[in-house]
Predict the 3D structure of the following.
Amino acid sequence: MKLDPISTYAFRETKLRLKRFSKNLRRAAKHPEDPEAIHDLRVSIRRVVQAFKTFRDLLDPARIKKLRRRLHEVMDLCAAVRNCDVALVLLDQAGITTGASVSRLKTTRGDAGEKLHRRLQAERRKHHAAPDPRSHPKQDDWKLAQSLEVNLGRLLPALAEEFFTSGTAALSARASYQKLHRFRLEAKRFRYTLELFESFYGTEMPQGTEILKVLQDRLGAINDCATTIDILGRDRGATAAVGKLLRQRKAVLQTYARSQFVPQKLDWWKRWLAQPARSPA
């Protein structure tokens, strides 16, 4: 079957991300106690899933559905481990290193780590092949009669505008932590989508992805506190200590948001995203 250039590109980029996922899977299975290994595995899963979403009209939907279900299950097990790791780090930063909450978190982390380790050992023996391209790709978002550059110049500026609209609403001073959490996920999706096409852009791409990374880090720091408070429940002392960190981190986020979510910044994003110039290597 002869593939169009866009489907060929989609298959190659998805295959590359699945290869990275497999590498991180093996590392996490070997070192389940390492928070960084779990973090890297989670990130690689998110990048694979975003490739599936971005190229869903071009790749075999049955294979995508099957792989996404497995990845989602692994992601949930990783989250259970990471939430405990993050909570213990935050409590340590707040000066709380002993007590009922710390003991409970360590026990929960141990149980969650064992479940994750068993699943990773089983998962690493499975095959993670990229979904085959569709024999008749849909043309809802992607216009196959046009070049990939033309498609990107049309799709990515619109995606940036949607992102800025969401950010302006989510980053208001009165925004709930639920809204901030949803926007954090949207920031990840936007960044990982852009990374799929970094070879088509020059120096603006690393500048843009770094802005998104910093934003993710600020939002993630807030989400870590909010999640930890939920985990701590009725431990008033620990909750108050983490709550103080939460307020400090929200202030840092607001300062950063005021510098980034302005009309001039949106104009900058749309200008360079509308001009993909390089051919993929």
Summary: The CA atoms of residues 161 and 266 lie 7 Å apart. The chain has a mean pLDDT of 91. The longest helix spans residues 61-93.
